[in-house]
Amino acid sequence: MLDKITFIENIPENQRHRIRKVKYEKDEFLYYNEKNTFGVVLEGVAVFVRYQDDQEFFYPWTLRSGDILGVGRYFDKGDWEITVYSKTLLVLEIPEDLMEKYLLSNPDFYNSLMKKRDQFLNIGIRGFFIRLHGGVKAYLAYLLFLYSEGSNIVSFNKYIDIMKMLFSNKAMLYRVTRELIEENIIIKEKKRIVVVNRSLLKSHFEEFIYD
């Protein structure tokens, strides 16, 4: 697996024994804000969450294959909670001192990481902007567009879990879902939503651009 991740080649072979693969289960928390470790996502999806009045809310950031855990802690001292969204999550854990010495010191790697970090932050900022100015339906469309990228499928255990993403109530969730179904944009199945028209889905939020 190591040779499939090109930037690992910058770490000497005699140090690679310190890199390990770790498997996490669904809903398990990833404490990379507390570790002196970076984690490269190999398989699965993780999401950022916050808690308010004992309720869990998902934020419009996902970490997928190739994304790096621990970047927020290292550069921004962030305190976001991150949890596993998919059934399992496979992560390659790299000690911080190896990242600093062999990767972050590499200008190409560092610049690429900073560019991806800025893009990542902009996704979240735009999401908040859409929720504020476009409302629940536009925000749901945005989240479904993001979460279904590459597969056109958004999976869930219980459909009301989608409320965690919307900061809304059950009645509103079902109303906007029904509207998207009637517009032939999505199909709702037992434990997943299938996006059947990405262009129309995008039309519900594309006018809301944060500058």
UniProtKB/TrEMBL annotation:
User: From which organism does this entry originate?
Assistant: Propionigenium maris DSM 9537
Q: Which SUPFAM superfamilies match?
A: cAMP-binding domain-like
Q: Which domain of life is it from?
A: Bacteria
Q: Identify this protein by name.
A: Uncharacterized protein
